[in-house]
Amino acid sequence: MKEPKITIVTVTFNSAKTIAKTIESINRQTYKNIEQVFIDNQSGDDTVKIIKALAPQAHLVSEKDSGIYEAMNKGFKLATGEIVGTLNSDDYFLHERVVENIAAIFVRDGIDYVCGRIKFFEPATGKFSHYFGSEPALEDNLVRMSIAHPTLYVKKEIMEKIGPYDENFRIAADFDWCLRLLRGKYKYFFLEDPMIGVGLAGLSARNYLLAAREELAIKIKYYPQRQWRFRVIFYSDYLVRRFRDLLIMIKLGKIVQLARRLQGKTTSQGSL
């Protein structure tokens, strides 16, 4: 694997406001053996037009799907690269050597996957908020998800062993997929330097609760004997989340921002 082809899958739906920045960050990469795959859910805006203009050589599929995980599964099936990763339609590479660094690690270390850190920004101001992503330790992820899914780049052969995303999960199928990866005990490399820039959009309380419930169900599926421990984590995280929302509601959001910065790379759903 001298210069492996790296496939980047991007799922889009009415992403005209952000997709250009995403594609331009790919086009700026110094590493050129990149295959771009776009799976669009029949956007009603200019998303497809922008993709065709900025990534004319990309594989583009625009058809109705049931959600992001069906779309990602479609993208992975189309991928022809030896290494496959994703870049969300409102995310972007932080610098032009991200993919070059990923490729070099695979060639040098003979690993099965790479993961790293995300750098979050406040959407209103563009200012740095916090980092997310840590070493992919199974026990850490059984407390709460700490692996940054958007930074995962995995050998195609390993992805085929793990299987597709479970589309029965609406929000947490990536967590289920990551647990399968970690349970396989594959060889990895963790990149300390942040790879991906993300706007801190924030889930609604309803979506957060659904995601947390799905994560709880996934943990119990693999480790039923530990379900009471998982339930305690679920309720404690929920209380922390409610407290965080209260701080924001009473105009003390700066405390939340400070807590995120102090927590650094280990910040997760259950944290402030």
Explained architecture:
Strands 1, 2, 3, 4, 5, 6, 7, 8 and 9 form a nine-stranded mixed β-sheet that branches. α2 links the parallel β2 and β3. The protein is built from ten helices and nine strands. It is globular and about 50 Å long. The C terminus is likely disordered. The chain has a domain of 101 residues: Spore Coat Polysaccharide Biosynthesis Protein SpsA, Chain A. Helix content is 43%, strand content 20%. 33% of the residues are buried. It is α/β, with parallel strands linked by helices.
CATH topology of the domain at 1-101: Spore Coat Polysaccharide Biosynthesis Protein SpsA, Chain A
Q: Give the tally of β-strands.
A: 9
Radius of gyration: 18 Å
**What would CATH call the homologous superfamily of the domain at 1-101?**
Spore Coat Polysaccharide Biosynthesis Protein SpsA, Chain A
* CATH domain class of the domain at 1-101: Alpha Beta
- Derived from helix and strand composition plus strand pairing, the structural class reads alpha/beta
Number of helices: 10
Q: Spans of 5+ residues with little confidence (pLDDT < 50)?
A: 265-272
